Amino acid sequence: AYLAKVDNVIVAQARVEAEYGYNCTRCLENFQRPQVMEYHFDFPLEPDAEYVDLGEEIRQEMIMSNPARILCKDDCKGICAQCGANLNTEKCKCK
After folding, report:
1. Cα separation of 30 and 37, whole Å?
2. N or C: which end of the chain has fewer CB within 10 A?
3. What is the three-state SS of 28-76?
4. Low-confidence ranges of the chain (pLDDT < 50)
5. pTM of the predicted protein model
C-alpha cells in the first residue's frame, strides 16, 4: 500500500491479493478463485481530521469489482431445472 499527502488530499494506492470463495451462478457449487485487485483513492483531507479510514472504500471496491455472474468453469453445465442434478457431476435423473 502507498499513502501520500498531496496538498489537502490523501492519495492511497493498494494492491490486494486474496483467495475468494464463490458460488457458481449455474450449478450453485462452492469454489475458490484467486484474485488480484489494485485500487487508487483520493481522499479530501478534512481540516480537523486525525485519520482517514480506508476500510469502507476498499470493501466497496472489492464488492463492485466482482462480476455479477461468476462460473466455476467456462463450460459449466449447470443444474437440471426439473430434478436439480448437477450436470457437471451426474446424469439427469428425469430424462
Report:
1. 21
2. C
3. CCEEEEEEEEEEEEEEECCCCCCCCCCHHHHHHHHHHCCCCCCCCCCCC
4. none
5. 0.63
Specify whether the CB–CB gap between 63 and 16 falls below 8 A: no
Torsions phi, psi of 39, nearest 5? -125, 150
Cell of 89: 457431476
Q: Is the dihedral of CA 16, 18, 22, 26 positive or negative?
A: positive
d(Cα 47, Cα 34) in Å, to the nearest integer?
39
Give the total number of structural domains in the chain: 1
- Domain extent at residue 17: 1-95
Residue 95: the pLDDT is 64
Chain-centre distance for alpha carbon 32: 11
What pLDDT does 28 receive? Answer: 96
> 30 has which bridge partners?
23
